[in-house]
Every structure is written in structure tokens, then in C-alpha cells.
Design goal:
The complex is a heterodimer of chains A (about 190) and B (about 280).
Chain A lengths: L2 H27 E14 L4 E14 L4 E7 L3 E3 L2 H11 L7 E10 L10 E12 L2 E14 L2 E11 L18 E12 L3
Antiparallel strand pairs in A: 1-2, 1-9, 2-3, 2-4, 3-5, 5-6, 6-7, 7-8, 8-9
Chain B lengths: L1 H29 L4 E3 L23 E11 L13 E12 L2 E8 L4 E11 L2 E3 L6 E11 L14 E13 L3 E12 L10 E12 L4 E10 L11 E10 L2 E8 L6 H6 L11 E9 L1
Antiparallel strand pairs in B: 1-6, 2-3, 2-14, 3-4, 4-5, 5-7, 7-8, 8-9, 9-10, 10-11, 11-12, 12-13, 13-14
Classes of the chains: A alpha+beta (about 190), B mainly beta (about 280).
Protein name (chain B): DUF5777 domain-containing protein
Keywords (chain B): Signal
Pfam families (chain B): DUF5777 (PF19089)
Chain lengths: ~190, ~280
């Protein structure tokens, strides 16, 4: 075995150790929620439609700036129960596509410091999957540190047609082409 | 060292992507598998003449207008039956998600009807797996038509129906339902044979687009007596759903829109052209 090979092995070993170390470190930097809140709002000439979901799940890793969000489509509740049925049955096809998911990263001017209660403005970027269609999105959000918990909020617009959600012509005046989505995630430290 | 740099560059983006996937897997591990209930097994609360397993959601109110016209084979003189219509007006209300009550008034024999619809099982998959939906219906009908001497008192003008509706939604398009039924008539004519009529109904729907489905329904009477000149009820139709309305257009040999009527008193032979055009319009508030 040559000197060079030995050296390479050593470096690989060091990297692996480093990665493992980082991996264990990351445990404490993860925050988790399973009952956070999301809302969507559609403003159209004939009616405004609003739905609320209190089963939003997410993990955020403040060491790696990663964030994943998942929400069951059937978790959205509407004022009119028939609207909820149509939302699931005709528009979102929630038996085929039960979840909406987001996987992405955020960037913040200063890294998040859990020891101080402050609010950080962040840019979130990643892939949003709705109705089986994945699109990349980016939006502004806020992360607030509050006594070792995190509260992340964001609002963005989703173009219904982008996600192949068909609206029949008869309902054009009832449903907006762009729907406003607001998310409020209340994280607790993650315990595995 | 050179290898290290190359390796680091190669590994770095891979690690980045993998992390988010891992994080999503980790998130999915944290959450219990949800219960996925079968939504909208049928579009309306009626298949055609009879009920479906759909109950109204809590506090939802439904107004149902149904018409059955005369026989198509009555020809041009009767404008293929359109000159004469039987009408039923119905009001239904969801007391809870699993209990619906309803009232109706039929122009035929000026009959009032009421029912109670109770959901026993709700089809679901996921954490809780239930293969079928099951609903029990109990209904009563009361004739108020004057001048029928054979009915001596009020009790004798009453009819009761008990039905078990068992349905399954097979994927998003096909739903099938069977309906074992018992109808009790307080007073009958001698040639009608027995007070109790047992029947088995079968029906289903096939969605052809997201908002349009084809429906069919058949009730087979099990204990018919010799001399009973009624026919089994057959119906085919189409459902069109637009927002809060469901329009149901159909062809059937039955003219009544309540169980005791279409199951035990269908006088038309579907295959000889004794077919009625009809519709149900449902509006849910």
C-alpha cells in the first residue's frame, strides 16, 4: 500500500467521522410540530372561500437551514361541508394525492440563535408538491425564537392551474385563479 | 489532498439533497398514519328513486325537488308523458354527521313521508380499515287522499319501510350498493296478499367525468304473490353536479318517489315502454 493511498484513507475516515459528528450534533438543532396551522383563501367575484388546517406537520433544522412541511389535504375544513367534499373529491382528488408537501431550505442574514428571543426574516426556497405536481417556489418568511421554541410564518400565492387542478368554467366566478396560502408553524425541540 | 477536494465536491450536493429526503422520512415517521374516509361514494342522497349511503353533514340542509312524468309510450297527445307529473318536495337536515332526518310531500295520493337515516359504518382506509359503508333507514308514509272507503281509520293509511344500505366505493369512479328492504303496509287489499314485502335492491354509479356519473338501480321483490300485477322497479339515470346542486335525470318504470311506492306499486313494464322520464334536483345549503 502506497503512502498516498494511506493518506487518502485517513482523510476519508476523517470526513466520515466529521459527518457523523455533524449528524449527532444535528439532533439538537431540529424542531418539530405536528399540529400547526395553515389556511388558504380564495377571493372570487361570486364568493370568497376560506379553509383551515390544523394538522400541519413540519421539521426545521436550524443547523442545516433545512425545512420540510407536510399536511393532509383532508385536514382542511370549510364553512360549508359540501364545499369540503367537492374540494377533496373533485379538485384535489385527495384519495389519490393525500398530502401537500414542501421540502426546501431557508436563508437568513444572521444564523438563528436560540438563546435570544428575536425574529429573523428569512427567504425560503424549495419544492412544493400539491395534487401530485411539484413546482419550485420561493417566498419570504419569518422565524421567531421564543423561549427555546420557534414560530415560523409565511404567506404565498399558489396558482391553481400550475398544479393541474381543474376548475370547470361554470365555477370560474366562484374560485380564484390564485389562492393565498398562510402557514403558521409552532415548533418544539425535536426529541427522537 | 486532491482526491479529498474532488470527493468533497462530489459528496456535498448529494448529501444536501439526501438530508431533505431524510428529514421528510423522519417527519413521516413522527406522524400517525391518517384515517382516509371514502368521501362522496355517491353524488346525491338518492341513487335514482331510493336512497344512497350519503348522509348530510352536521347542520347541512337539503332541499330536494323530484318529478316523475307520465309514460313515454303515451305518445304525442300526452307529449310523451310531460303533461302529467308526480311531484315530491323534500327537506332533509343533518342532525349530526351520522344522523339525517327528512320530511317529504308527494302529490301522488297526497302522501306525506318522513325518514330517519342513521350511518352505522363508514368506509375508510389507512389507520382504520373499514371495507364498506352501511346506513339504516326507517321511514313512514301517510296517505291523505280523500274518498278511499276501504281505509277506515288513520292507522290503516300508514306504511313503514326499513332498509339497510350497504355500499362500497371501488376507487374514484365506481360505487356499488345493495339494499335489503322490508316494507310493511298496515292495511292491504285482498289481492295484495301479505302485509310485509321483502325486496333486495342493487345499484351503482360510474363516474364518466369528474362531475357526471351514470347511475342504475333495481329492486327485486322476494315474496310476490300470484295475481300481483306490479313490476319490479328499474331505473337508469345520469347525475350532473354543479357546485351546490346535483341534477339527476332518469328513466324508470316507477312513478312514485318513496320506497313503499316504487318497490310495491310499480305498474309499468319497463321493457314494453312504460317508462317515465323524471328528475331530482338537490340543493344543499
Amino acid at each position: 500500500m502506497t503512502q498516498k493511498n494511506m493518506k487518502l484513507k485517513e482523510t476519508i475516515f476523517t470526513i466520515l467521522m466529521l459527518l457523523m459528528f455533524l449528524g449527532t450534533q444535528a439532533q439538537d438543532s431540529k424542531f418539530f410540530t405536528k399540529d400547526s396551522y395553515a389556511k388558504f383563501y380564495s377571493e372570487a367575484p361570486l364568493e370568497n372561500i376560506e379553509a383551515h388546517n390544523e394538522q400541519v406537520q413540519s421539521i426545521i433544522d436550524i443547523a442545516k437551514n433545512d425545512v420540510v412541511i407536510s399536511m393532509p389535504i383532508t385536514g382542511f375544513t370549510f364553512e360549508k361541508s359540501l364545499m369540503q367534499e367537492h374540494f377533496n373529491e373533485n379538485y384535489m382528488e385527495s384519495d389519490k394525492f393525500p398530502k401537500a408537501e414542501f421540502q426546501g431550505v431557508y436563508t437568513s442574514a444572521t444564523p438563528i440563535d436560540m438563546s435570544k428571543n428575536t425574529t429573523y426574516e428569512v427567504m425560503v426556497k424549495g419544492n412544493l408538491t400539491i395534487h401530485g405536481v411539484t413546482k419550485s417556489i420561493s417566498t419570504k418568511g419569518y422565524i421567531k425564537v421564543e423561549n427555546n421554541t420557534l414560530i415560523a410564518t409565511t404567506t404565498f400565492f399558489v396558482k391553481v392551474a400550475d398544479y393541474k387542478i381543474e376548475i370547470p368554467r361554470i365555477s370560474f366566478k366562484n374560485i380564484a385563479e390564485e389562492v393565498e396560502v398562510s402557514v403558521e408553524l409552532k415548533y418544539q425541540p425535536f426529541k427522537s | 489532498m486532491r482526491y479529498f477536494i474532488i470527493l468533497a465536491f462530489l459528496l456535498f450536493p448529494v448529501a444536501c439533497f439526501a438530508q431533505q429526503d431524510d428529514l421528510m422520512a423522519l417527519l413521516n415517521d413522527q406522524v400517525e398514519e391518517p384515517i382516509n374516509y371514502a368521501e362522496a361514494t355517491f353524488k346525491g342522497s338518492r341513487l335514482i328513486n331510493g336512497h344512497t349511503v350519503q348522509t348530510r353533514k352536521s347542520k347541512a340542509f337539503e332541499f330536494l325537488i323530484s318529478h316523475r312524468f307520465g309514460r313515454l309510450n303515451a305518445g304525442v297527445y300526452e307529449l310523451f308523458g310531460l303533461d302529467g307529473a308526480n311531484i315530491r318536495l323534500g327537506f332533509e337536515y343533518g342532525l349530526t354527521d351520522f344522523l339525517t332526518i327528512g320530511l317529504g310531500r308527494n302529490s301522488f295520493e297526497k302522501t306525506y313521508d318522513s325518514f330517519l337515516k342513521f350511518r352505522l359504518l363508514r368506509q375508510s382506509s389507512g389507520r382504520v380499515n373499514v371495507p364498506l359503508s352501511m346506513v339504516y333507514i326507517s321511514s313512514a308514509a301517510f296517505k291523505t287522499l280523500k274518498g278511499q272507503e276501504q281505509y277506515t281509520n288513520h292507522v290503516s293509511k300508514l306504511f313503514y319501510t326499513h332498509q339497510l344500505l350497504i355500499a362500497r366505493k371501488f376507487g374514484s369512479k365506481l360505487s356499488l350498493q345493495i339494499m335489503p328492504t322490508l316494507i310493511h303496509r298496515n292495511l292491504i287489499l285482498e289481492e295484495q296478499g301479505k302485509n310485509d314485502v321483502y325486496a333486495m335492491g342493487v345499484g351503482g354509479r360510474m363516474k364518466i367525468t369528474q362531475r357526471i356519473s351514470l347511475n342504475s338501480e333495481y329492486y327485486h321483490r322476494l315474496n310476490t304473490v300470484v295475481g300481483d300485477e306490479n313490476f319490479n322497479s328499474i331505473a337508469v339515470g345520469v347525475d350532473i353536479e354543479t357546485g351546490g346542486h346535483v341534477f339527476q335525470l332518469h328513466l324508470t318504470n316507477s312513478r312514485a318517489m318513496i320506497e313503499k311506492g316504487f318497490i310495491t306499486e310499480t305498474t309499468g313494464d319497463f321493457f314494453k315502454g312504460d317508462v317515465h322520464f323524471g328528475f331530482n334536483v338537490s340543493r344543499v345549503f
